[in-house]
Structure formats: C-alpha cells, structure tokens
Amino acid sequence: MEAWATSVRLSTATEKPEYFVTTHAFPESLPESRTTRDGAAAAQMPGTSGGRASEREGAVAVATSPATLGSAHATTAASDASSDSTNSTLRSAPSSSFAPAVTKPSTTEAMTASTMRPTKKARFFDNIRSTIKQLTSTGGGGFTRQLLEADISADCVLGLLQFMRAFRELEPWALRLFDATAKYPTGFLQATSAELGAYDECIETVVRDEDGAEKVRGQYCNMRLSITDEDSFLEEILPAIAFTHRRASKFGSYFVDKKLPGLRLGLCFVSSCSAQDLTNIAQTMAGNRAKIVVDNCVTSVDDGISGTQAGIIAYLAILAMVIVAATGLDLLTERWDKNRKNAIPYKCAMAFSALSNSRLIMGINKDKNSDNYSFRFMHGIRFLSIFWICLGHSYGTISENFSRMLNAVQYFERWETLIVTAGYLAVDTFFFLSGFLLNYTLSRQHRNRAVVTVVAIIRRYVRITVPLFFMLMCMYLLPLIASGPNSKDLYNRFYAEIRKHWWDLLFLMRNWRADQEVTILPHLWYLSIDYQLFLVGVVVIQVLKT
Fold this sequence. Notes:
Layout: H1 2-12, E1 18-23, H2 34-38, E2 59-64, H3 69-81, H4 83-92, H5 95-103, H6 107-115, H7 120-136, H8 143-148, H9 154-168, H10 172-180, E3 194-195, H11 199-203, E4 206-208, E5 214-227, H12 230-241, H13 253-256, E6 263-270, H14 275-286, E7 290-298, H15 307-332, H16 338-341, H17 344-350, H18 354-362, H19 371-374, H20 377-396, H21 407-411, H22 417-421, H23 425-443, H24 449-477, H25 487-506, H26 525-544
Parallel strand pairs: 3-6
Antiparallel strand pairs: 1-2, 4-5, 5-6, 5-7
Helix pairs in contact: 1-3, 1-6, 9-10, 15-24, 20-23, 23-26, 24-26
C-alpha cells in the first residue's frame, strides 16, 4: 500500500503530465462493497465506457512527466517487489478500511485523475488499431493465413508481412499505400468501370533507414476484375441500373462483355511483390467468384534513356543546330541580291530557316490575280471541317477510364447530338479538296507527263511521311516527361504496334489492317487512304489529260 501511495505522490508532483503504465501497482480485485464500487471512479479511465484504465492489460495509467520518469520507474520496481504483501493485506482487510481512501480522494489526486483522460485522437486511433488487429489476426477468420497461402515469392512474403505489421500499427507509409489504393468504382451502377486511386501518392512513398538504404518503396499497379457468374450478377444489378433510364437495362452487357477490360482499380503495394505475386494474392482472396489480373506495375525509379530515345534526342539536337545556323544565315544575308539568293545551295539552307518559314506561313497574298487569292474560300471550308472532326472525336473516343457511361443514353436523345455523331462526314470534305486541287494543278502542267507524275507522287509521299514519323519520334520521348496511371500500358501498346506494324506506316497501307479497333493510333487510316486516292487520281488525270 505504501508503494502505491508513493507512486501516486510522485505522479501528482509533475508539471506536465503524460501517460506512463505501471503494472501490479494496484490490486487486481477489490472487496465487493457498495463503498468500494462507488469510489472506483478514482481508478477508472474517464471518457471510456465505465471500465477501469488498461483493464485488459492489468495495468493502471499513472500521470508522470519526463522529469520524474526515473523516479516513477524506481517506485514501480518497489511496488512490484511488495505487490504480494500488499495484495494479501488488502484481501484480508475489511472493505470499509479501504473505502475512505478511494471514495474521498484528495484534491491533488483528483487533478491527477483528470490529467489521465486520453484525447479523442488517441482513442480514435486506438480503436482503429484494435479493429485492424482483429481483422488481420490469424485467429480472427484466418485472413492472414489466407494471404500467406497464395503462391507468391519469398520477397513478397516478407513484404506482405512487413506491410501487415506496419498497417496494424498505422505507420505513415502503410497508411499512404492504403490511402492511395482504389476502393470501389464510384458510380458503378451508372457504368463507371474504373477507379484509379492516387498515383502520385503511391509512387512517392519511399522509406529509408538512417544510412539512407531503401527499406520500402510503393508501386502502382492496375488490377482488372471480371465477374465469372454473369447471370446472377446481372440479375441483381439490373433493377438498380433501371433507375437511370428506361432503356438503361439494355446496357447490362457492358458490365460482363468479355471484349471489354472489366473493372479496373488502382492498386498500391510494396515493390517487393511482382505483378504475378499480386495477381495470385488477389485471386486467392476472390476465389472462383471473379477473375483478377494485376499488371502494369510502376515505381518512381527512373528507367533511364533507351537507345532509341538517345538516338532521337541526338537527331533533334542536330536538327535544332541546323535550324539555328540557317536562321542566322538568313539574317546575315538579308540584304543579298536576288541572284545570289536564287542559288540552289542557298535555297536548301533557307528551307531550314525559322525566319523564312514563318514569313511563308504567316504571309498574306494580296495579288487578286493569283491562285491563292482565287481559292481563299477553301480556308473557311478547312477550318469548319477540322472543327467538326475534332468535335466528333472528342465525343466519339471510348476509354475504359470514363465514368458514368449511362449518361450517353440520355445524351443521345437530344437532337443536337446529331451534329456530333455526323462528324465523320467532314472527312469527305478533305478528300474533295485534295482531288480538286490535284486536278487543277496537273491541268496547268505542260511538262513531260511521266516526270510530272513521278515528282508529284514523291512530293506527296514526303509531305505525308515526314510529319508522321516526326510525330512518332516525339511519342517515343513522351515517357521521359509524362507518366500517369495508364501511361505504362499506353506506351507498351505503342511500342508493340510500331515494332509489329512499322511497315504499313512506312508504305501508307494502314487501312488494310483488320485490327483497327485495337490500335492506339486509329486516325492514321486517313493518311493511307488519302495517299492511295492520290496515286489513283494522278494516274487517271494524266492518262485522260488532253
């Protein structure tokens, strides 16, 4: 009893109370008496549901401070040594002999008890930790055992255990990985099939030790989920989908169509687990209810510059130097006479001058007798056609990342949507303009027909392929400056398409492919058709020309 009283006196002398737990400094049980039950509030933790402080631990929270922490430890040791005698004394003593000390605490003891009240934040996170431990414990439903039964690598097992231990304790890096992971596609009953999570938060999570060595790194992956029991699934969700629109029930196949990628969730986990490891873990948890595939995992580790990218950068650097040199030459020779400027080497150099090309593009021909002035109406046709095509592509592009696709059912009931859906008709405008200008140009040529035909074909080929491959080169450099939740999948598909079908781009035969719907550059079909129609038009016009 003296040891316990000494511990209380030491705790009440502190200036800034904190929590300190001493075990066996208080009797585990008190004599059952009305007085003792009424006075038990002095040994209870305020703010809880009437239970004694640290009742599950068999401990009592006593207020102390860092300044008196050593004294408190000494007192605790003394109380441990005398706990047996104290407990026996209390058990043999009558309840009334102990009741006054508890039912009538001193002012100092009351103040000490008030400082022992935990904050709401502490109680909140303590409850979360307790819940997480129950969910992830081996005995609580076998959740941990189920995860470890998956066919995963040894590194992934260690990473999984490390994450679960950190998540039980709500460590910051584990909270970030959990927070960055997508939970559920919001608006699923309106045909939302993707929830991307927090990409940047995930890959920015890196934990290092005191020496700077990496301990944990977050990686972002795509998890794709497909329902296996389609009939029962549709039977359950179709009544809920019908609230959107009377014809929304016909959209049911959108949720189970095998041609579509299914549900997509952003998954953030430790980098020690590969995509196959995560697939096996997810499939083990889902069982036969769904098919799950995890792929396209990325981290913040820089992959460096590939050989192809280095070659493209070198080419662009040389091209930039040539442009700078040609522009400088253009400025220095601005006062040259026309005879010197008409030299072929000089014209070739001026083809790379930024100044000369800017004047050519921005210049306005005011000669009313020129062809450019006569056909100036075509500029308006081009502008309206391009605007119409861009508008149609903006609404006609389909992506798995779009949300609430059922809104399209309501949207296409409005009459103005006919303008958008008919945007493909504007493409015919450019076919007409190309044919019209080709016929007009060839009809004014009086040189050898064979030479004119060959020159026209080569010129048209260069004007199409050079901008095309320049655009492809820029796309090869895109991974160096841009990344996102869908970037790895996009770049991999682009690289695979170029490696497999580079020849149909080089020979402008893109429209002969049968898998146009899976390409990431479907709009290139126009270039191929335009060039093929140009070849036919040149031959026909030159043959029929009189």
